Amino acid sequence: MPIYTCTCVQGSLPSDVKDGLAAEITRIHADINGVPPDYVNVVFTETPRENVYVGGRPGTPLLINGWARRGHPQDSTTRLALAIAEAASRISGIPQEHVMVVILDSPARSAVEAGRVLPDPGHEAEWLAAGRRCGDHRLFPPTHPFLLINGWARRGHPQDSTTRLALAIAEAASRISGIPQEHVMVVILDSPARSAVEAGRVLPDPGHEAEWLAAGRS
Q1: Running DSSP on this structure, what letter comes out for residue 166?
Q2: Which residue ranges does the record assign to the Tautomerase cis-CaaD-like domain (predicted)?
């Protein structure tokens, strides 16, 4: 269910460090948020050293972006971020002042995994039981590549539309890629339209696209 993307400078984390960090992030999230370890996803992205800056100068930070379903208690999410930051520094050897952890969230119904809409926090048991009845193989070690798709949309779209969007993209991704649906995850993140700029203009709230497009033509 959760996704963690660890971005670092190319070559700064050896394979054994990645193994240890992925295992610890998985353990911490499973312990705090009550998700089976098999459902915790950790991805490492390495960036060439000349492309990474901190405070306007070349640097070697470790940036960890996580995603969790909206509705977990804030205290739990704070503990999660603190525990992951401590573990990341301890395992990687990167000082804590160069480690940043951010936990993003969006509604559970904006995400699809194994072809099914995710449950709200607190309803994992029923979701997992239904998955066993459906033969969800994520309950066992994966034997296929895993495809993670992150989208972003302006906050305010009807939740039913966002759920249909995630389901349709998950189905298409599996069909086109040949990766089974149980190994495809789609998450639609959201934030206010006024937190985004395109073509030099602040984006419109959902429902006001026509006026925004017309103003762009004039």
Answers
A1: H
A2: 1-128
The structural domains of the chain, with segments of one domain joined by +, span 1-106, 109-218
1-106: which CATH architecture? 2-Layer Sandwich (3.30)
For residues 22, 27, 29, 33, the Cα torsion angle rounded to the nearest 10 degrees is 160
Taking only the tens place, the pLDDT of each residue in 14-50 is 999 999 999 999 999 999 988 888 888 899 999 999 9
The CA-based dihedral angle spanning residues 87, 99, 39, 13, taken in that order and rounded to the nearest 10 degrees:
-80
- Give CATH for domain 109-218: 3.30.429.10
Q: Tell me the pLDDT tens digit for each residue of 83-122.
A: 999 999 999 999 999 999 999 999 999 999 888 999 998 8
In the 8-state DSSP scheme, what is residue 57? E
